Structure to design on (273 residues):
């Protein structure tokens, strides 16, 4: 069972190259999260702030803060998951995707980040997307949008708030076999004139041990019929290990896609487009 503790804030910064993470433990210290409380957490909700400078305790001002509110640590109080853009040195708020963006969680509701991940690399800007339970520990993880192709789908990465071995509390991405952040497609490609939309989704199941994250794609093969391809990954820590690939035909009439498409991902409601 994962436990979230905020004894030390870890800040992950990019060291020159994309994908190169350097951990600077204790670089900053945030406030101590409050403990306890009997407030029933609401479902994940969107919060957005204007493009003004915010001090989230990161050591630099941020702007264009996009947030989701949910109970990340399971203590009964709502926490804030945010993607924020680093202000330019000149003081302006850069266009999304053109400057450093970071992922943070405020566990103590004091407006300061208690744990930080990134920097993120999203051509059009990153977005918080949903807070699904990916690893079946009863606590949410974080799904963010890292790309929005022209076909209308979204590229999704999954991040975990966890304490790596020998480290401090951090937000780190689930990695694929190549060591890169695992990235999934999600959404619907309207196929006007064809047989129907092409649908992408991501489902999670705890019916297996280790639990599975499965990316799936449904391609129309005729009126109300689809060919579904699935690629499942075992969740081992923050590694997604390829577990199976499968494909099958879904006839019409009672078409049932795997879950994790439409307006959910891994059982969690997604933000509005
Ligand atoms: Ca909480
Ligand atoms: Ca979880």
């Amino acid at each position: 069972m994962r436990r979230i503790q905020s004894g030390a804030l870890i800040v992950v910064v990019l060291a020159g190259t994309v994908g190169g993470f350097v951990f600077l433990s204790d670089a900053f210290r945030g406030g101590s999260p409050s403990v306890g409380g009997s407030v029933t957490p609401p479902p994940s909700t969107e919060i957005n702030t204007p493009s003004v400078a915010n001090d989230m305790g990161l050591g630099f001002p941020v702007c264009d803060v996009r947030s989701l509110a949910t109970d990340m640590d399971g203590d009964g109080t709502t926490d804030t998951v945010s993607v924020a853009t680093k202000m330019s040195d000149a003081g302006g708020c850069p266009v999304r995707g053109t400057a450093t963006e970071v992922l943070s969680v405020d566990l103590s509701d004091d407006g300061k980040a208690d744990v930080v991940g990134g920097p993120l690399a999203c051509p059009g800007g990153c977005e918080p997307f949903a807070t699904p339970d990916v690893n079946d520990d009863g606590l949410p993880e974080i799904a963010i949008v890292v790309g929005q192709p022209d076909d209308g789908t979204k590229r999704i990465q999954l991040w975990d708030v966890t304490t790596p071995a020998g480290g401090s509390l951090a937000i780190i991405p689930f990695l694929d076999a190549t060591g890169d952040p695992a990235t999934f497609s999600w959404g619907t490609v309207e196929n006007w004139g064809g047989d129907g939309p092409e649908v992408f989704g991501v489902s999670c199941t705890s019916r297996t041990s280790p639990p599975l994250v499965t990316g799936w794609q449904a391609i129309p093969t005729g009126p109300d019929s689809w060919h579904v391809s699935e690629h499942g990954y075992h969740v081992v820590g923050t590694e997604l290990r390829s577990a199976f690939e499968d494909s099958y035909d879904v006839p019409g009439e009672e078409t049932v896609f795997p879950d994790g498409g439409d307006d959910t991902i891994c059982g969690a409601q997604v933000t509005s487009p």
Q: What stands out?
A: The chain has a mean pLDDT of 83. The pocket of calcium ion (ligand 1) is lined by residues 71-73, 75, 77, 79, 107 (CB under 6 Å). The longest strand covers residues 225-236. The chain is about 0% helix and 45% strand.
